[in-house]
Every structure is written in structure tokens, then in C-alpha cells.
């Protein structure tokens, strides 16, 4: 059973459950030499739920952010590795060197383009990859993109 902690007052602190290993997502740490902590919240997303629009090679991933810093902390976690999901987060991560607590270990949030090996090839356009827009839309519905929160997620 995979358990991803959902640390959001709006969503409660109930864990997200799905099959597989257990993973706990905790605080994000950033800044040097005096690290600061920010609460995070993540949602489990899967190929089964997204169907043909699922952009990743992996069957499951976590998408989330630190709600106190929407827009610049949008992250994707695949197989325990956190990565910046948008350009604003990538720029912010390059400056602030954030670490995300996963399974009790502080892991660096990678920045820059998401590895091509993580993204599925586009089935209709040779040489192109699937769009990550469905993941960004999920992040938006969670309130991770400033001013774009939608109801019902």
C-alpha cells in the first residue's frame, strides 16, 4: 500500500492510499544556511484515472506543492524522485535548492526539463512526447498554481 501524506488543512491530513510500496511525503525544506520548512500536499495520480491522456511512462505519480508558495513549488514525484513540474518551480528550485521529505529522507527537488525517459512518446506524432498539461491541470485544481484553484478535486 502506498501512503502519501496529504498535509493540507483544506484536504485534511488523511493519507492517499494506492497499491505498491509505502511512501510518505512530508515537508519541503529550502534555503541556506538557515533552512526553512514548508508544509506540502500531494495527490496520487494514475494512468488508470487519466486513460489516453496519461503522459508518463510510470503507471503512477504524485503531484503537489507547498500551498504557502503556489506556482513556484509545483512538483512531480515518480518512484521517490521529486522534480520541478513547471518553469517557475524549476527557476525557484535552482536558486533555493529545495529538498522534499520522502520516506523520512530529504531528497533534492530536481529542476530543468523532466527526463525524456519519464514521459511517454506521443502515439500520433513521431518524435514527440505526450503533453504534461494533464498533470499541471491536476496541480491547478489542487491550488498549486496561484489564483487558479478550482473546486471539486
Low-confidence stretches: 1-22, 148-153
Global mean pLDDT: 81
Cα-to-Cα separation, first versus last residue: 22 Å
Topology order in helix (H) and strand (E) letters? EEEEEHEEEHEEH
Largest sheet: 4 strands, antiparallel
Classify the secondary structure makeup into a structural class.
alpha+beta
The helix tally amounts to 3
If strands are numbered along the chain, what order do they take across the biggest sheet?
4-3-9-10
Number of domains: 1
Number of strand segments: 10
Instruction: Output the radius of gyration.
Output: 15 Å
What is the helical fraction, as a range of percent? 10-25%
Oligomer class: single chain
Strand content range: 25-35%
Quick structural summary:
The chain has 153 residues and is of the alpha+beta class.
Annotate the secondary structure layout.
Blueprint: E1 2-4, E2 16-18, E3 25-30, E4 36-38, E5 41-46, H1 47-50, E6 60-65, E7 75-78, E8 81-84, H2 87-96, E9 99-102, E10 105-108, H3 133-141
Antiparallel strand pairs: 1-2, 3-4, 3-9, 5-6, 6-7, 7-8, 9-10
Task: Provide structural commentary.
The chain has 153 residues and is α+β, with helices and mostly antiparallel strands. It has one domain (25-141). 15% of the residues lie in helices and 28% in strands. It has three helices and ten strands; from the N terminus they run βββββαβββαββα. The protein is globular, with a radius of gyration of 15 Å. The chain starts with a strand and ends in a 12-residue tail after the last helix.
